[in-house]
UniProtKB/TrEMBL annotation:
CDD domains: SCO. The lineage of its organism: Eukaryota, Viridiplantae, Streptophyta, Embryophyta, Tracheophyta. Keywords: Copper, Metal-binding. Belongs to the SCO1/2 family. GO terms for cellular component: mitochondrion. One of its GO terms (biological process) is mitochondrial respiratory chain complex IV assembly. This is Protein SCO1-like protein, mitochondrial. It comes from the Eukaryota.
Amino acid sequence: MAAAINKIKEKAKLEIVPVFISVDPERDTVEQVHDYVKEFHQDLIGLTGTSDEVRKVARAYRVYYMKTEEEGSDYLVDHSIVMYLMNPKMEFVKFFGKNYDEDTLAEGIIKEVREHKRS
């Protein structure tokens, strides 16, 4: 995603605002999410919330997530991996799955943004 964001800026001169939403509010504090997203891209915005808020957002975007127990006291969170393209009004435009490489993702986003600007 980070590489695609850079390609979009270089190729199409478009500013994309990437957002990451944690699905593990029990473990991910605001500070942890802030530090985590900066490892990927300087413009990536990290969000978290209460368990109820995360559940509502996940349901709204049909994101699967489930806490799975591991040996010992640690756990993992299994989740779907989806990127959503939203328009400036925060309305859904298109989703991109984890099978998109950086070039295909960048081209797909550029295409959708250009179509949106024409309409």
